[in-house]
Queue: 4 jobs
Job 1
Amino acid sequence: MKPLVSASDAANSTEPAAAPGQALVIRGGRPLTGRVDVKGAKNLATKAMVAALLGESESVLRDVPEISDVNVVRSLLEVHGVRVDDEGDGVLRLDPSGAVSAHMEEIDAHAGASRIPILFCGPLLHLLGEAFIPDLGGCRIGDRPIDFHLDALRSFGAVVEKLPSGIRLSAPEGGLTGANIELPYPSVGATEQVLLTAVRAKGTTELRNAAIEPEIMDLIAVLQKMGAIISYEPNRVIFIEGVDRLEGYDHRCIFDRNEAASWACAALATDGDIFVAGAKQQEMLTFLNVYRKAGGSFDIQEDGIRFRRGEALKPVVVETDVHPGFMTDWQQPLIVALTQAAGTSVVHETVYENRLGFTQALNKMGADIVVHPHGFASPERRVPRRELEQAAVINGPTPLHGADVVVPDLRGGYSYVIAALAAEGESIVRNIGIIRRGYEKILDKLTALGADFDVLG
Ligand code: EPZ
């Protein structure tokens, strides 16, 4: 067994392993051109790995990206007695037959900055009758509470105890039972929580106001392969009929549309031309509409999508939303490109309350971005989350120049890299390890696209 991204892999790869404290010295001002390959989605692969805990036989997951979030889930599974074998070329074999309870400290030590431990709850409650969750991390893009998760688990009958070291959950005698649940907001994580718990609960679960992101639909496909019975209606309602046992699965992850959108924005920001192999149109329809309105051009091909500027960049007004809306993960790299559009763009963030803070560093590089902390609230908004909203007003075009910046979170960090590549002069982008949470072989890919940089530290 070896970790997906280990020192030995790094030695065999042209890409140096990026420690969190490492920095990139980037000499910008040249377009990124060439081809990058995107593999499976971080936001499916990590959840499908957790689903393997529910099977009574081995699972095989394909197209798993070499990112540190996958390594975190792998360590957490191993702490819980799951055998994980890396068969190479993105294939993981997961054997849950030795699953055991783990101590809070062990979980804490392996969870790192990830929020994934919360999704272990349902499967562990079925398997072992108890589960522990340490303090959860994830990107610092808002409070990121877990109240929807805990309320859903309580609806299945779980008992939730808050302890100084974290949270302990236990299943009632006789196990968890199906429930009627309405989420206050179509949360991705809470929908996954309900799916991973309901498939083995006794009776039927009806989940209303569910998230319907493509990665969730792919998780449903994984669970169906395992023996689950799940159906859905177009109005965000999912029905799950609990079953007594589930088997392992063999599944190829859906492609990473967030990574694909990130490279698309890199082409726009640097005036480059990037073919993103593995990207598909269907899951990116909303992104592609905005890309076109912003002056981007794309060619949909059999094996990927080619992205470049079509004409002069144009300002756009965008509001982030749950699927099928414009994803919150897309706005950060898009904003970098919008600094080069002639006119005023508005990006209204409605999913996280602190996902525009990264724009301060873009201003340091010459951008003109003002963040309005209360957004532009509309009483007609489809979800009542106004207290969380923010809006960025981007005035362009503003030439960018090099600066010394520190990566704040995954997508913000990627955005700094492309801003530095678009800028004239030299930039230092510090703390690049965070980017490895979700971008596979980022340094190799940048090199292949003609980026000029050195790794420091
Ligand atoms: C997932 O986070 C993704 N992470 C995020 O990607 C993505 O931005 C987000 O979904 C939205 O698409 C993973 O899949 C690992 P949510 P998740 O629950 O599940 C609030 C990236 O960069 N909320 O849909 O944590 C929450 O605070 C990452 O790849 C509660 O209030 O997102 C947020 O405002 C970042 N209580 C909103 O709901 C809860 O119990 C949406 O969160 C849960 C969530």
Job 2
Amino acid sequence: MQTWMPFLPERASSLSGKVDALYFYLSGVTIFFTLLISGTLIFFVIKYRRRSPYEIPRPIAGSHKLETLWSVIPLLIAMSMFVWGAQVYFEQARPPESPSEIFVVGKQWMWKLQHTTGQREINELHVPVGRKIKLIMTSEDTIHSFFIPAFRIKTDVLPGRYTTQWFEATKPGTYHLFCAEYCGMNHSGMIGSIVVMVPSEFDDWLSGNSSQQSPAIAGQQIYQSLGCVSCHGANGEGGRGPTLAGLFGGQVFLTSGETVKADEAYIRESIVNPQAKLVSGFGPIMPTFQGQVTEEQLLQILAFIKSLQVANPQPATPATGPMAPAPSAAATARPNLR
Ligand code: CUA
């Protein structure tokens, strides 16, 4: 469908109308003042042109009224842009409560995506209409940028860090996905498509592709095969590391006296650089797993740790909480997408 404005991409997300309204406002103000200033400039040049070589203009005294006016009006206009822009920014930067999560890993030169139910996709993402989707993104190599013009979202995807982005598609269809950050020779080929389906079709699509493991289950296997279990045991076995049940989303006390939130970035850092933030009461004995796990595996371990939520999460350091074994990890990991 062509919109009335050339080059304007379709609007297919809950945010796109808001981004466009702001964009039109900024353009409108810019066009208005460009015309006003250049118009008066031309008018004054003609009206006050020099009429004789000996002409001496009348001296002009300053006007405080005029100066106040032309300072206050631009201030109000600039503040309106700031407040409106901040509103739209906060809305798109803060993911809503309990969205469906999708992991995104960028690499030269493709997008690898995984649903929490296990389905993997490359350069293609299937999503249902009307559901809030949160992307947790990282890169295996250089900086990429995940750009869906029809949704009016674009976020950089950085190595060694998680960035997030959310959207809610409002219209079924197939939309462009671009990499919007120059990332090497085939940057221009790092493209794909977002397929937005009505929920029933999407559920069919999901069940038709359900052969793969969910990231939480895959993460649990990595957790076992790397021997994490020997220190971060289910019921305090080993006891050399903090228990992982109920960790995600809570507060962690560090030996430095600081308190940090156990979010995605904290957990990733604690795996690749365990000494960076030592949990209070534990020694610096954990080896780094940098290079031993890929970004996708890190995301799977993260999904596993997220799935280990206890009924009443304690904000404090390890308690003897019931650690969820494999089946309940699967049970909590799946309904996320429902
Ligand atoms: Cu990836 Cu440009």
Job 3
Amino acid sequence: MVYDNVVLIGFMGSGKTTVGKSLARQLHKKFMDVDTIIENEQGSSITEIFEDKGEEYFRSLEQKYINELTQKKGQVIATGGGLPIHSVIPEKSLVIYIDADFDVILKRLSTKERDKRPLLQDVARAKGLYHERVNTYKELADFRVDANQSIQTFIHVIFDYILDQRVL
Ligand code: S3P
């Protein structure tokens, strides 16, 4: 299998964006973040889109932009935590699961970062969502990395794995 793109999946706040930026830099690939693209294209924050148009509309945007993005090759793409649950990740994507425990995620996120995420406002519900989703993340992943350590500690594991694969 020759992969067109690297796609990072995982729960909110697991570090996909930070990992993606760093990997893209090291691999000399372009970094793309689906949430940022949605916000730029819509001219609204994720919170505003959820409030004004609803979650279902947001999910349709995720599917649209992941489809569009993957028409191109050679990118490292960070997805929102719900994208692999609600959308189909196009074939020929090397899917990497950034696997952090819920408690670790909560500790990592500042209040400001939590406030940006409508589905993290109620911690008990977010924990339920986390447990609902983890199996799907595992099933979809070509590779899973234990992300309970600092990013600098595990990023080289992903880097080495990607170099062993054939990603354009
Ligand atoms: C969501 C995750 C968020 C963002 C939106 C919904 C989710 O992205 O797409 O708030 O359903 O898990 P991050 O995973 O980057 O926080």
Job 4
Amino acid sequence: MKKIAVFTSGGDSPGMNACIRAVVRTAIFHNMEIMGIKHGYDGLINNEFIPLDAMSVANIIQRGGTILKTARSKEFLTLEGRKKALENLIKHNIDGIVAIGGDGTFKGALEFSEICNIPFIGCPGTIDNDLMGTDFTIGYDTAINTVVEAVDKIRDTAESHDRLFFVEVMGRDAGLIALRSGIGVGAESILMPETKTDIEDLIKRLESGRKSKSSKIIIVAEGDEAGGAFTIAEQVKKRLPDYDTRVTILGHIQRGGNPSAMDRVNSSRMGFAAVEALIAGKQGEMVGIVDKKIVYTPFKNAVKHTQCLDKDLLRMLKILSI
Ligand code: F6P
């Protein structure tokens, strides 16, 4: 392994830069050349390769976003696109690749492996935490902290006005951002795609806690099967018209900001482990951290989003959120 490349792909997430830094410096330590590919798979197709050195990743560990930029490539979904990408990798003599991204990134790597035998190792970069084979993905901890900070502010005004707030959080079809941030803010209810949303039950819960509490926060995962925060709020308002109800969609603030200490450390560990995995001859696997230890999961298993919600957390939630 003489020359490797690194790219970020899919939605950016805080900690990607820390991961890039770790990849670059570990490669240099092992006397390898390292190139960055800008804009994910699009850059692979459009030949956006740039040489990186130890100093090109200085002072980025604390920065959100990704210095390599990112994209959700449509062209890579085509065989034509993937062939162009392969030509560029061969042209640059790349012996191995570290791909930092989410399930779209690893599904892309799986497809690519049908025509490309250059080894890929993945690092889980997504705020959604919707990958198997790691307790926390890069950016998840920062995102839930961002949600907690924002909802704490909403709680202040909700409390002053005795209001009911529906706050929608990201996560695509996963409810893991909703679950942890909802516990962190003491939400009265958390609606997630993994658990059945029963509007009647929600109304009952709101009514039973009406007297004891003035503000109420309902966290709604954007992928909830009953709809987004606006849709659910409309249904509840029809049944409980005397509630002073507001809706907040937190949106992309959840993807930005300086990574938390935990994200910086995890990202560094995973970037470091990814390069050492390439040297050890691994390929087609994602690096993760489970119970504080580095583990590797084949892409085909990592992308199976069957991440069950922690049953203990769900049971506790029912008891704590009256
Ligand atoms: O996968 C990360 C994520 O932020 C999801 O939570 C969200 O559904 C999606 O990306 C939004 O994507 P985009 O920035 O392309 O609108």
